[in-house]
Amino acid sequence: MWVAFGVVLASALAGCIEDPKRDILDPVSDSADISAYMYNLLLAVCSVIMVIVAAWFTYSVVRFRKRPDDDGELPPQIHGHTQLEVAWTIIPTLIVIAITIPTIINIFELERRPGEGEPVTKIEVIGKQWWWEYNYKDEGFMTANEMHVEVGTTVQLEMTAADVIHAFWVPQVTGKRDATPGRVYEMFFNVREPGEYIGQCAELCGSSHALMGIKLFAHPKEGPNSYAAWVASQKKAAEPPRSPEAQRGKELFMQKGCMRCHNISGDARTELHPKARRRETGPDLTHVGSRTTIAALTLKNTRENIARWVHDPQSIKQGALMGDPRFNTVQVSKEEAEAIASYLFRLK
Ligand code: HEC
Ligand SMILES: [Cu+2]
């Protein structure tokens, strides 16, 4: 039993060490600072209580243990001891008040809207089985799973869902918040340090819930890796295919009807009309090659992995809405998938 416990504990700790980028105690945004502060505050208060109770308990057990000459009488009874009862009512009340006040202040702080005229990056977030759609409405493009923001600029997420309840959570950057069908919940944050932060859907949403990852890139304001440079690259139309293999991939893409569920802008034949968006509509692929992962962090983005995915998505992500016979029965052979991947992977 202890061995099993040890193994579980060791692997849990190893998980923490290998993956420091999911640590709520290493916050990189104003919003995550608040969560970490509340966590530390509660931990401190509870630790003090635990130490006092444990010390008192240990002392009592030792000091009042049964001795050989005990005559078996009960200790003095204190039922109805007014001073004691007042004390153990007031002390916990004070502790609860001490925790409640910063909690309420911080809830309002988390909900605080950016001031008038303050620059804001607005992103509509739509949770879908089993991936995240990001609509940069002001900029006029969409992307999936990998969110890009600018360091120092407040981000306003407008979150909803297309099917069931999901929850957006990037531990170093945001708290958890539900993405609920038919509702729009907002979340604000301002990242301090450039970097790459990992997140996860945090509300059990179906069979592939665990494969619904999030990556958040915080870009500096200036330089070749700036947020503005990323936005400019995403606003461009898709590159036309350059090789015969990629050209064939594009034709297959159209033949197989992939644009019923995917948009590739720049050519009317591969564009998805905004009104044609449905529950099973998949990620915008205009710049799919520029992502580091596909299928919500399930696979690294390589040409081979795109081909594997296109050939048989269900074997990679059980229940994915692509390759689901309810929506599409088109078969793509391995060889066809290779050609399609040559086309898609170059869409940087
Ligand atoms: C019925 C709708 C539907 C059809 C038809 C469809 N897909 Fe998809 N596709 C999806 C959905 C939904 C996802 C997201 C799956 C997930 O991550 O859970 C997806 C994901 C993808 C991805 C990964 C994108 C990313 O950024 O993660 C690629 C590439 C892709 N599809 C290519 C294709 C190709 C090529 C075809 C045509 C052979 C096709 N799809 C047909 C719904 C569809
Ligand atoms: Cu989910």
Give me a quick take on this structure.
The protein is of the alpha+beta class and 348 residues long.
Verbal overview:
The chain is of the alpha+beta class and 348 residues long. The protein has two domains: 1-60 and 113-235, Sandwich (Immunoglobulin-like); 244-345, Immunoglobulin-like (Sandwich), CATH 2.60.40.420. 36% of the residues lie in helices and 17% in strands. The protein contains eight helices and twelve strands. The protein has helices at 2-18, 30-63, 82-111, 227-235, 244-255, 303-311, 313-316, 334-345; strands spanning 120-128, 131-136, 141-144, 146-150, 154-161, 166-168, 177-179, 185-189, 195-200, 213-219, 293-294, 299-300. The strands form four sheets. Strands 3-2-1-5-8 form a five-stranded mixed sheet. The longest helix has 34 residues, at 30-63. The two termini are 52 Å apart. The model has no long low-confidence stretch (mean pLDDT 93). Bound molecules: heme C and copper (II) ion. Residues 127, 130, 166, 201, 203, 205, 209, 212 line the site of copper (II) ion (CU).
Task: Kindly list the characteristics that best describe this protein.
Immunoglobulin-like, 36% helix, binds copper (II) ion, 12 strands, binds heme C, 2 domains, five-stranded mixed β-sheet, alpha+beta, 8 helices, three-stranded mixed β-sheet, 348 residues
Strand order of the largest sheet: 3-2-1-5-8
Tell me the number of strands.
12
Q: How many structural domains does the protein architecture include? A: 2
| The CATH fourth-level homologous superfamily of the largest domain | Cupredoxins -  blue copper proteins
H/E element order: HHHEEEEEEEEEEHHEEHHH
Count of runs of 4 or more consecutive helical residues: 8
Rg, nearest Å? 27 Å
Give the strand content. Answer: 15-25%
Each distinct ligand: heme C, copper (II) ion
